[in-house]
Amino acid sequence: MVTLLTDYTTRTILLGTLILGISCGVLGVFAVLRRQSLVGDLLAHATLPGVALAFLLTESRNPALLMLGAAVTGIAAVSLATWLSKRTPTDLNTCFAVTLTSFFGLGAVLLSIVQKSPTANQAGLDKYLFGQVAGLTQEQVILMTILGSVALVGTIALTPSLKVLTFDPTLARISGLKPERVELIQTGLMILVIALSISSVGVILVSALIVAPAVIARQWTQRLSVMITLSALVGGAGAFAGSILSIQRDNTPTGPMIVVILALGAVTSVLFGTALGVVPRRLRAKKSQSGGAS
Questions:
Q1: Rounded distance, CA 203 to CA 67, Å?
Q2: What CA–CA distance (Å, rounded) separates 231 from 79?
Q3: What CATH class has 2-281?
Q4: Cα–Cα 20 to 30 A to 126, which of 55, 117, 212, 285?
């Protein structure tokens, strides 16, 4: 561990993934509380065709261009799913699921075209499926740190509005809060974080980095401020630990390593979390029954 942290390149990479983990952890809180986890999944899978299209059109691996392509198709996917839910009898989650699979299928087709192109050896876009932290450049890490910090600050600034919208929709309407505007900003921040994360965590698993820390935090507290803080810490720690293990084990994708760590944390928290964990709730129920009986 000490040897890893004394290496400048490794420290820089770990700083970038740490920022992403914290940003995803904070952003995921309201996605979980508002039951919008599928939105993150849709956005994550919808970024793949954007990355492939950006490369096919520019033949450049510039991180900013690839992230821009990811953001464009992410916005297009959410817009299409929302439009379908309003114009057809199909519910929103079903539209999300259909759009998710359609965009991911398109991305897989475009990725296969990229791999067959003359510049396929230089493309390296396959890492966007499962992530590869070892392939991050200094330029990418700097961009991730700056924009990740912007997403983090933006989410924190939006917290009061999201809190009212989540827990008291009636008050939100009475106070003149515009839900559409708040949700648009929240979606934009989520797209930004996902576009930043896919090169490290991968398209398939980035939604886990958004949802899992919030799920873990929810099992240990019922206070929103504590949940946000705990989710940020869990996201950062999970991303950091997964990146360390990925670097130590050559050719091990970063995304699966991070998800395994967070999955273990989620299972443990669901069982033993002091707020909503299965074991503590059963113990409290037994104590309540025994107290009532006496």
A1: 12
A2: 28
A3: mainly alpha
A4: 212
